[in-house]
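Deliverable D5.2: sample structural annotation.
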Amino acid sequence: MMARLENKVAIVTGAASGFGEGMARRFAEEGAKVVVADLNAKGAERVASEIGGGAIAVGTDVTVRAEIDELVYAAMQAFGRIDIMVNNAGFTHRSGSLTDVDEETFDLIADVNMKAVYFSTLAVVPIMERQRGGTIITTASTSGIRPQAGLTWYNASKGWAITATKSMALELAPKKIRVNCLCPVSGDTPMLARFMGADTPEIRDGIRAAIPLGRLSTPLDVANAALWLASDEAAFITGVALEVDGGFDI
């Protein structure tokens, strides 16, 4: 049986760790050629080399349009097409009072979680339109659906990502470009300590207790959801904010 992403090319940002690394690896297992993009160039190189099979690494600051353009150019030079664009890179302020978040941090949240999606869309949509189709996936969050106290500006950025996804899906449907987003609950990733404010067993236990299935999300949980959205099995799915949350948003 053909792998679900056979002959497809995927770019995944924030792919040196966490959810992004999980997606890059899972996509490759299902036959995709993967461009592993991350600000952490060494981490991206590690993931690409471990994937093998033609995966390439590109050090990318998603907040800089020229670097997004260079990322897309590298993908086209290596593989000649782009079928899947995953906007996974993300940033948050540490959990705490909304008035304690300085302007520099606020701007970085907006640039990574919002403006980078705009930049990547400008870069890949013309390519996907020429190819007569493609799919864009953004990692949003349950925080965009059910805001968490102490994460106001992060919550807002993820709510924006959900609304942008739905609006993009409407506009790009005639071009056969599907647009969806993922809404994971807290996962054991490098950003978890920022979400919690402090990383203690008691706080982790509290988070688990709020999730009906009783555990944090994992990179594999998110990767499997992304794989389905990216595959032809989801050919009729667009504009969806898919909750990967163990029932947290019920």
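Annotation notes: The chain has one domain: 9-242. The CA atoms of residues 135 and 178 lie 5 Å apart.
The annotation will be released with the project's public dataset once the embargo ends.
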